[in-house]
Amino acid sequence: MSREYAREVVLKIADAVSSGEVVPVETAHVSGVSFLTVGEYGVEFLEHLAASGARVSVFTTSNPAAVDLAGVLGVDEVVAKGQERITKALRAMGVNTFFSCTPYEFVITRQRTFHAWAESNAITYINTFRDAWSDKNPGPLALLGAIAGFVPKTPLYTLEGRRPTVLVEVEAGPLGPLEAGAVGALMGEQIGSGVPYVRGLSLTGEGARREFAAALSTYSAMVFAVVEGVTPNWKEYLEIADFREKIRISQGDVAKFLRNDETPDVVYFGCPFADVDSVLWVLAEVKKRGVPKRPIYISTSPGVYGILGRLVEEAKRYNVYIFTGSCLVVSPHTRKFRTIATDSLKAVYYIPRLHGVGVVPCRRERCLDLAYA
Length: 373
Hints:
With 373 residues, the chain is α/β, with parallel strands linked by helices.
């Protein structure tokens, strides 16, 4: 009965948004699984689905929770118990509770296959850097789609809906994580919606890719950009492009987007979750410089956390705290701080809004300088 319920709901939504058409999906990724963001009503919804016998029919993963898996972030008993109920309900439905915002690290998403993902940075990443197809599905719809096995056939599940509409020329670079995020944010603010075709975008490594995707989707409704020379099938997208406007982003534009430094309580890396190279870079720097005056927090995926092994405990001796399964955006632990320095434009956007905590955007190297200031 529960799968039939999910199918019925998804079909009704499809009637409203895609003339009743649906597409079968290979994987799903569910957001809205932090007790901080969904609260008691969200927990009850998940528990109701699980009690009805609902089970996902495709490989499904989950977004970060309010409680980290390593016990680094302290939360009160209400949050801890609420998160435990969410985890229990998700597992009962067959959802893999990796609690990661970077499922593309371990989920194979082939070109031009359909997926029901609900974490905007992850959607933008697979759309842009793999040409795997997912729209920005709300968390409940992604879960219902995972149970039903299909989602509404919205424009991003069609080649026509992915036709580039705006030409973006980037005259800045190579871009590190912060600058890549600034370009994504500027594109988002100036364009708002549509499909950008980006020329001249030079991203220095995996961290920059993640920050570009996260910022673009945070500061706009867009979850897909064609990056010339990078996006699979970019030549085909250029051939079908219908450019209605053109914008330029210069080094000066990027510099104007960044604020002056303030003194933080803590430095934070890992929004989206830090890749292994980024974590190892931070650890190498603190070993050279010595113990910083201010703590450094790094959130990463369970996979990277496992790879680090004994380095996690060693890092604590350098006032560096590595954790997984949660982040400072969705954990109430963040409210213990006054000001956070970070190289993530996504964190810059969400942390003040969700927690009332100040955020200082800084290049990775400058963030470390602030930890020692």
